[in-house]
């Protein structure tokens, strides 16, 4: 019946047989195997693991395998799905299984191990966000708070008590007579007060084959998770810089998070979501307000430092300076440059007074020791950036090429800039202490702090300086045209050299996640599509339109020739004809042609060498001696020239001229319009094949190489931002890996749909009415009358005229939709929650937008116009929000689950050791 596998060597005098059984349905060509920590199970080498064989039992397919081991055998193991060549297709989620054989086994005994496949959704509740925060298992578990009933009456009073053995695992040993089989049972939660609650679903059943002469005397049941209603929670999202408090200096600070956590708890929220908090000080100006362009993926941003907390002995003159700065910088929005400058100036003064004390403290020395791998290069980079007055490290002379020898010499004792280096250590140390304080406070209050993992780093960053081989520095990262921008997005970050990163098993990524886990118990993966494929642009691009996916299978020259298409210059060179120029520029077309174009044949034009890229066009418009001719038309001229440059149907591969990529939305171009019908049909077919067919398996395999490394690098709960153009492989992979998706109502993932319906969202999602990359709920409602009417009719279900103003009643309806959704998490921007009360809607709605993705130089400076202290005093809005949490059945801090201690509410993975 069961296949035999490798043994642990020659049989000892006390050898037993392990018989593994697992119900699991596979597809044709797939099979299951076990690999584990011991040689008998392959020593974690899948190719040498224990192969399982399928057996049909009633309506189930049971995979079985047996192996002989010593009676004292212990191991960790996992189940894997493999193909015919034992290539891994998927593996079960969660931590490794741990097997310890029952005591008293004898020579020749058969120990039957009955497991259930560990689904990714179950494993989520073993992550630190739940295990150590929401359910607070680290505070101790009342071991008698749960029991299981094994008799047919299912009376908890007669049930078998389980013992908590740690790591969310409950265990019991039960001795049964053969005559008692089959046994039906359920698990039951019993509170200290004696209230009981049976798990949901049909009775569980365990049976044995009484006719078999070699029946197991020992059966180890691993029953998986307690069956209960799906747990659902709620949270609030706000950038740190947007917070306002009585104590802050011009911007929200890490220590303000403690007040935000208090407000979250009072409002019924289990989660606070932030934007990236890493240092972005690349340009030395307000451009650095963009939180996704990291100077260092490890260093924290000095903007969030509370200077008053740097010392208990701040001199009176410095205290006065702090008070004056607080008054001057208490503005409607963040003054990024003035705030950062003021904080660093004050911090330097305090540093000069107490540097010897702090730098010699055991706490600081420990911090330096644990973080020196990134902290020393960061401090050196900041010094060199300021010394050379640029963060472009290619202009740093002999320091352009990083080496550890140069670094150690640069930061060594006795240099004139020694204090400068140590000042950066000092600031990072205090940022670490302040954020750690806030994070510990959140955990104590059962509130998850959720961070944000940006998809890229600035090309002029510490990381590209120290690890240049990990980045493709002649490229840029972006996104194709989507909801956010019809021209696509160009974020400017270099793309990753995944092949190089894989050589040390993605060590840079693992270090990033380890660092984040010091503060956060959950995180958002920015642009998760980038781990399947990235939209890669040449470094001379300014927009996001002329890109290609990496990795991808390009269109070959042979494919076109076989279809009778041969004029590759016509399809890949900007298609510029006189009538197009006249249509786009009117009578001004001759000026455009004379300054930017060459006529290579009658009425046919091409760009001049000095303006044949988007960045060259921008430079020429600004610097040309003839710029006075178009001074008042600069924006329209630039856009028109971009349209000409982008008027292609194919993009030729810069490294292989016989390979091509279809230009995104190629049917929108006049280059496509003027082709013959046969060429159009061929291009339509190949366009669809490139974007929606031929890449799917490649992108799936690419994600399965990288994402599991991220997920296994920490114990944090991971959520993926999966908005935009979604390949078909994305959601299955996310489900397989236990990644929670994102659903924004105005950006539905379903094609030809204008609005998402929250009641139809899947459980493994975060739902929200808006996010930082779009207008707030109020602004969205009020900015488009037609869309508002369509929403009112299709979502609200009313044919009446909708109110033009987004009233608290409108907000309540939309917000309640999201609270009631099946999604595991409903997370709301703070602006949308405050709109539940008229008192907080005095500020014009468009001013509450955090980011405009269509503007690459957007100033990220929005501040909430009310302090956290005032919000904490407003019991009415807190009660309103908590009422929504409660009525929707979502969990909230302090909620008592009937019949259970919260530490076991959803975490129970019960192992029942039975002997018959």
TrEMBL record:
Q: Where in the cell is it found?
A: Cytoplasm
Compositional bias of kind Basic and acidic residues = 895-908
GO MF annotations, alphabetized:
4-alpha-glucanotransferase activity; starch binding
- Note the Gene3D superfamilies from the entry: Glycosidases, Immunoglobulins
Keywords from UniProt, A to Z, are: Carbohydrate metabolism, Cytoplasm, Glycosyltransferase, Transferase
What CDD domains does this protein map onto?
A: CBM20_DPE2_repeat1 (cd05815)
GO BP term, pick one: carbohydrate metabolic process
What reaction gets catalysed by this protein?
Transfers a segment of a (1->4)-alpha-D-glucan to a new position in an acceptor, which may be glucose or a (1->4)-alpha-D-glucan
All copies of domain CBM20, residue ranges: 10-118
Family to which the UniProt record says this protein belongs:
Belongs to the disproportionating enzyme family.
Instruction: Write the protein's name.
Output: 4-alpha-glucanotransferase
